[in-house]
Amino acid sequence: MEWIIVTDSGCDLLPGDLAPNVRLRRVPLSILLGEEEWVDGPEMDRARFLAAMEAHKGKSSSACPSPETWARAFSEGDNVIAITITGGLSGSYNSAVLGRDMLWEKQPHKPIYVLDSRSAGAEIALLVFRACELIAQGLPFEQVTQQLWLYHQHTHLLFLLEHVDNFVKNGRLNKLVAATIGMLGVRILGCASEHGTLQPLMKPRGAARGLELLVRELERAGYAGGPLAITHVQNEEGASRLVGLIREVWPEAPCELLPASGLCSYYGEKHGLIVGFEDGQARTPRGS
After folding, report:
1. SS3 of 274, please?
2. pTM for the complete prediction?
3. Strand, helix or coil at 272?
4. Gap between the Cα atoms of 119 and 124, Å rounded
5. Alpha-carbon dihedral sign for residues 127, 128, 130, 131
6. Where are the beta strands (DSSP E) in the chain?
7. Is the dihedral of CA 118, 120, 123, 124 positive or negative?
8. What is the per-residue pLDDT across 88-120, written as a single tens digit (0 to 9) for each?
């Protein structure tokens, strides 16, 4: 019995085998810099993309995978779990639901579950890892998806960004809020809201202060030393410094560092950090 976990490129994990009988499939979003289209697949040169994005001064946007693309991915494997980037940034979730319905017209009993992460990047990685854990327990499809949904109620995302130009261009962030970001070393520290939208929390000055406040926000949000993932946009040094600060408070914290996908690089921009984590209630036993 083969399981397929399908994500869009809002996930930073690369496709491939995750565990015995569990495979990750990733369908790409596209990013448009003016007339130039970048398909966010594993072969995408992210360094060249970031350079092109930094040089581009005109309009830019992203385009979600088509329902047909999702349906083709869902046709693989026996059990299918799909996890999409937040519907607050993209139409990818709605497209995935349409793709599921298209396939159900031909295979009405195929197990397919579609989850809107209400997030991106590192938090999606945590959801993928948790799905693998549940599958490894030998649970039936319905229990895997139910337990994954329950787990998702206790996962969260924080971000620390030096630049927010693309959020502003796409109407995802108020221009007044964004006006000072990047000036005199000011960053924006924020979170994904429960509705999957961008929610600024504060504007620290300097990388060190930003990292310090991010760790404080982790604690305030209920992080208790469980699994944590950090997506970075050409900022492995900053991600490693953040791991060091986290382990000063939670010495055994398991931290996964991930280079950002093209899409997460588009929104996180250069040196951006995106942190996905579970709160202290995530592993509390629950009825199935």
Report:
1. strand
2. 0.93
3. coil
4. 7
5. positive
6. 3-8, 16-19, 22-27, 30-33, 36-39, 60-63, 79-84, 112-116, 155-161, 188-192, 198-202, 223-232, 255-259, 273-279
7. positive
8. 889 999 999 999 999 999 999 999 999 999 999
